[in-house]
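Much of what follows relies on a compact textual record of a protein's fold. A record is reproduced here so that you can trace the correspondence yourselves:

. . .
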Amino acid sequence: MNQAIRSSWMAAVAMFALIFGAISYVQVIGADDLNANPWNQRAVLASFCNERGSIIVGGKPVAESVPGTESCAFQRKYNQPELYAGITGYFSKFFGSTGLEQSMGETLAGNSDQLFLDRMSQMFLGKEPKGASVELTLDPAIQQLAMDLIPEGQRGSIVVTNPKTGAILAMASKPTYDPNLIATHDRTTAEANYAQLNQIPGINLNQNVSGPTGNLLSPGSVFKIIDTAAALNSGKYNKDSELPNPSSLPLPGSSASLPNYAGGNCNVRETASFAFALEQSCNTPFASIALDLGQDAIREQAQKFGFGQDFGDQLKLQQATSIFPEDLDQAQLAQSSVGQRDVKATPLQINLMTAAIANGGVQMKPNLVEAIRAPDLRVINEPKPEALRTSTTQPIASQITEWMTSAVDNGIAKGAAVPGVKVAGKTGTAELGDSGLNNSWFTGFAPANDPQVAVTIVMESVDVQTGAQLTSPNAKKIFEAVLNK
């Protein structure tokens, strides 16, 4: 009998401990993850009818709470919705929240620790809680320009940042959508709109997966910036090195070969300087460097620029992680060194890589939030510029800047040239199988001697001519718009 009682008692204690542990996990350890889950509607429902804080760009709300219907005191409204949808996301009773509406949800709802005294004050006054407003670093004019430069029906992304501070001036991508269609209080309408929006090719309604401009894409020749940094860092190469430049490089262990870019002047020289190889975007010199240094050296340099890493906590939007693959054979390494095969990057990653070169080798944390203001408008948080990692040395960054400037002055990136301003840039063309289409890239910064702005553009699934028209010349327009402010 005593043994039976003892066993029952032990079972009861074990069950109590299990229940206590589960409650502790839900309330303490796992609370943030559970609240952040876009499918968790409990947090949305708890504050759905409250006056949520605004998301502000250039002093004007792009997301705000306005008087609602009889069933709910407030309705979420998005202004210029297609322009900012990839950043604001949506706040929906039926589909949860995404984008900044999700990542800044506690702040916008007034539930963050910083607003504890405000909540207490409102409670004692018998008022409904109000959320804090989030002011963004985005420049509305540059954001609009970036969106306008992506043609309707074209899948593409543009990222514009300040390389010295990490402030994001524009993040635009198409296709886009109207979050108001999902934020409606009518379930039938919201569900029908959601289903219809999901039929748009390339649409991403769940920005928590990869964020705006967060698609993982083959970077093509913009990856050669990483090859160059790895080469100079190794000590085996310097600014005067002559690189092998055959018109085609046989891939080890394979019957295939890696050709040079046919549209440039690569094949006029059997050897090439770094300047010439970057100006003309020659493939074989950089493949040769990778085969010489080995995959670990290239991968480690890629990681120093952010591949396989996160972007820190200031971005406030989740992004897909850029990839340089493991366990490559020699043929795969040669192809990967020119940004093909399984190398994948987000436009933001390529922008941060470029900004690190512009900033003397130091990569800043990307920052989308300028300030957070309490309901009484006082500033309760104002993120400061913060270094994220050192990607390369200042001398190497300066040397790569010189060669990127030459690529704009004398090479195939000349479409980005701005009269009276030194521009540093690099183009990229990532082939999409045998389709004849490519992902076309430009990434660069200006002025080269005192960088104020870094621009990255990618247009997906375009032919070479269309890609050339939509990348470097559009970068020129953005450089001019930012520098003329």
Observations:
- The mean pLDDT is 88.
- The chain is about 40% helix and 20% strand.
- Residues 37-136+175-205 form a domain with the Penicillin-binding protein 2a (Domain 2) fold (CATH 3.90.1310.10).
